[in-house]
Amino acid sequence: MCGIVGYVGPKQAAPVLLEGLSKLEYRGYDSAGVAVMTDEGIVVKKKKGRLSCLSEMIDGGAAIHGTMGIGHTRWATHGEPSDTNSHPHLSNSGRFAVVHNGIIENYLKLREYLTKKGFEFISETDTEVIAHLFEYYYKGDIIETMIKVLSKVDGSYALGVLCADNPDSFIAVRKESPLIVGLGEGENFIASDIPAILSHTRDVYFLDNNEIVVINKDEVKIYNTDREEITKEAYKVDWDISAAEKGGYEHFMFKEIMEQPRAIADTVSPRIKDGKVVLDDISLTADYIRNINKIYVVACGSAYHVGVVGKYVIEDMVRIPVEVMVASEFRYCNPIADEKTLVVLISQSGETADTIAAMREAKRRGARTFAIVNAVGSCIAREADDVLYTWAGPEIAVATTKAYSTQLTAIYLMSIYFGQELGTLPKEKIAKYIKAIETLPQRIEKLLENKGDIQYIASKYFSAKSVFFIGRTLDYAVALEGSLKLKEISYIHSEAYAAGELKHGTIALMEEGTVVVALCTVKELFDKMLSNIKEVKARGAVVIAIAEEGHKEIEEEADHVIYVPKCDALTMPSEVVVPLQLFSYYVSSLKGLDIDKPRNLAKSVTVE
Ligand code: G6P
């Protein structure tokens, strides 16, 4: 996600902020900015593009004089990457400057409210409402103002705020988005991530939700929202810089696996209002949806696998036929697409060459395009008729995990929305599905807690020559992703098969010690999967089964069982994929491979 750095001390702030932000560049960003308290008030400088562009603009920081400031690297969510949308944001009078990570879910309502009160909005961001709220509620006491502002905003945030009336201190807070305080000698810092301040201090406070900090060069005071002062123990960071970049984990892939509950919550919660799915930016009308005769889902790699799950989900909820196609095929297959066809494009980067070409081909044929994209302002996001963003934040590991999971979530949201607008989904079902996706983060947390079991299983089979993934319907769709993940990062030959299709050829490959991962979470097909497990066991295979909690009978057939929490069938793929990601990760780690940068692969494939 975005990066935050704040500084107050004896040094010139701007160079310190630039240096701190440079330590956060690895996270990905599209613009950067700083706000510094100067003798003439708060000075803000910000620029789209690399940090070096900002640095050049302010002469490495030398162009702004002042010893306190806040800085930010932005990864666009609301509003495209641009100078105006980058942070810090100023209130209309220039008294407040704000940097923000996270998402303000009720920003549209607040924007409307503040506009009526006469505030002028300059950017398209959700963050700007915070700057204006500060201005609106400020009566001379910054802590009181912060408490008031927090009571008005919903969502996730890490905030750093400068107030021109307080030339020696600034204020910060967090909820659901990380923020730490760095404690120096005669200087103090805030940062969204440890690497930003590690060259200055190793003593930090990890802030908890809604803890408000007031920071000057000699002192850090922490308050709760009742304005009671809190004492906190400082933590000594003993990680080196490269471990710190990965949040203390060994690899980005693991960090991103662990970030999935948060990423899913960020994608879902702003879109659920009063028991309904609300897709503010989508212009598709119920009339248009009613006339759709066919939906294509078109994508590459893991995003294509999301489409395979999507076919089951969309057809079940919306009752419109869905065809899933890899983009490199779609563009050349003379697809039957016209103005009654909706083409859903799924892409993390929004820059995959084949997916872009497929989108243009679909448009050429008169079809309407609907993109599920992670990178705001990317080519697909700009050119598609509608965009539903997955707010996964930047993904650095080549093998996707949190982008895949949030894409699945976007498919659920889109399907519920269509079903809701068309009236094909009864109210009770809408409520049930919404509950299922809102509670998904907790269930994934639970799965992640049991990662040790998967590590143990991986330790037994990491030298396998070949691994098969089998499942039926939705489980088959997830098997495709499990198998791709394993081959991408462990270089083990792997195939995914619809379990019923095994006997038409692939079963010939089963022999003593072949590893089969059998996904058995589709309730009505559980017995069929037991038979498939028996078939492969009879040929000497070792079976790792994934089943829903409570299906104990599987222990008699499989060599190992990984249980996933009970949940609604259509959202089960989001759970099942997690142990498969962990399995691949641990296998690759045990083989000592370059997990984050596997051979021959690129994160974003921008050539055909
Ligand atoms: C590459 C990546 C995959 C990704 C695919 C599609 O192959 O390694 O992880 O699924 O491209 O990328 P996109 O950015 O369009 O989702």
Question: How would you summarize the topology of this molecule?
Answer:
Blueprint: E1 3-8, H1 13-22, E2 31-38, E3 41-48, H2 51-57, E4 68-74, E5 89-90, E6 96-104, H3 107-116, H4 128-137, H5 142-152, E7 155-163, E8 170-175, E9 180-183, E10 188-191, E11 203-206, E12 212-215, E13 220-223, E14 229-230, E15 235-236, H6 241-245, H7 252-258, H8 260-268, E16 272-273, E17 276-277, H9 286-291, E18 294-299, H10 301-318, E19 322-326, H11 327-330, E20 341-347, H12 353-364, E21 368-373, H13 379-383, E22 386-389, H14 402-422, H15 427-438, H16 440-449, H17 451-461, E23 466-471, H18 474-490, E24 493-498, E25 515-520, H19 526-538, E26 542-548, E27 560-564, H20 572-590
Parallel strand pairs: 18-19, 18-20, 20-21, 21-22, 23-24, 23-25, 25-26, 26-27
Antiparallel strand pairs: 1-4, 1-10, 2-3, 2-4, 5-6, 6-7, 7-8, 8-12, 9-10, 9-11, 11-15, 12-13, 13-14, 16-17
Helix pairs in contact: 3-4, 4-5, 8-14, 8-16, 10-14, 10-18, 14-15, 16-20, 17-20, 18-20
The structure holds 6-O-phosphono-alpha-D-glucopyranose.
6-O-phosphono-alpha-D-glucopyranose (G6P) binds at residues 300-303, 347-349, 352, 355, 398, 400, 601, 603-605.
